[in-house]
Design a protein that fits this description.
Layout lengths: L9 E6 L2 H10 L50 E11 L8 E14 L6 E12 L7 E10 L21 E5 L3 H10 L10 H6 L10 H15 L2 E10 L9 E6 L2 E5 L5 E12 L5
Antiparallel strand pairs: 1-3, 2-5, 2-7, 3-4, 4-5, 6-8, 7-10, 8-9, 9-10
Helix pairs in contact: 1-2
């Protein structure tokens, strides 16, 4: 797909399926029977409705399907998630039919000293068919890069000290979690699933934690541990997080971070929250 082919948004009907909601709950080790049709979808769980239906023969070489919109072919084989913004304008009801509209919002090509690159921004809108306006609007910014080739993994960063204020929660993502999240979102990007590809083609030390999964873990931290309801989040992905390595979720006021196993900041999120309301236990 070329940039000139991207004018028309892709619309589809999705179902906020109870089956999928219970599978997300199971992945998060929550009681699945507590969710039923007619209930409110926890904010942050809409990711499975953003999945696209890209045919296997149309996948990028790295396996990335595009998530609702096929990624344009710009001759740049490496892909990273740079940022995400989600506005929760209203709740979605479990079992309801949703109209999804996805489109490429912008493509910016650059040639810095490190090599040619492109920044591609996708936008998704989820609207209950009975409503006039979207309930959720999400933008995702991806960075496309030239193939650097596999090499020796970078040396580990020096262990840093965590801030001495704020609320923390430690977590270790494993292969099973990466597989389940990728399957629920129909995301076949090889860096989350194929250790041989990740190490020998991308030159990374291990499987990479999905950027969307890192975001989900933070929104769960906000809604479950802090019992706050989200109205908008803005997320920046600064460095990869890796499978089987400790991450630390951190909150200081309206600022949220994920520190990697060396206590370096990998994810930053700002969140606007409403009054406390626990959506699930």
């Amino acid at each position: 797909m070329q940039p000139s082919d991207l004018a028309q948004p892709i619309k589809s009907k999705e179902t906020c399926s109870l089956t999928m909601v219970r599978r997300v709950a199971a992945m998060l080790d929550l009681e699945t029977a507590s969710f039923s049709e007619g209930g409110i979808l926890p904010r942050g769980w809409h990711f499975f409705m953003l999945a696209g239906s890209t045919r296997k023969s149309d996948l990028r070489q790295d396996g990335f399907p595009g998530l609702g919109v096929p990624m344009p072919d710009l001759g740049l084989p490496r892909l990273l998630l740079g940022s995400r913004t989600v506005a929760y304008k209203n709740d979605l009801v479990i079992g309801s039919v949703i109209e999804k509209t996805s489109f490429v919002k912008s493509i910016v090509e650059k040639t810095p000293p490190s090599g040619r690159m492109a920044i591609v921004t996708l936008q998704h809108e989820l609207r209950p068919v009975s409503d006039a306006h979207p309930a959720i609007v999400e933008t995702q910014t991806y960075i496309l890069l030239e193939n650097k080739g596999a090499g020796s993994p970078p040396p580990p960063d020096q262990l840093q000290s965590l801030p001495n204020v704020g609320k923390y929660k430690e977590f270790v993502p494993d292969e099973t979690l990466l597989f389940q999240y990728s399957a629920l979102g129909f995301n076949s990007h090889k860096i989350h699933l194929d250790r041989h590809y990740t190490q020998n083609v991308e030159g990374l030390p291990d499987l990479v934690v999905n950027g969307g999964l890192a975001t989900l873990l933070l929104t769960e931290f906000i809604s479950t541990d802090l019992e706050l309801e989200l109205s908008e989040i803005k997320v920046k992905h600064l460095a990869p997080l890796f499978c089987n390595r400790k991450m630390t979720l951190f909150r200081d006021g309206g600022l949220f971070k994920i520190f990697d196993d060396n206590n370096a900041v990998a994810v930053e999120m700002t969140a606007e929250t409403l009054q406390a309301r626990s959506l699930h236990k």
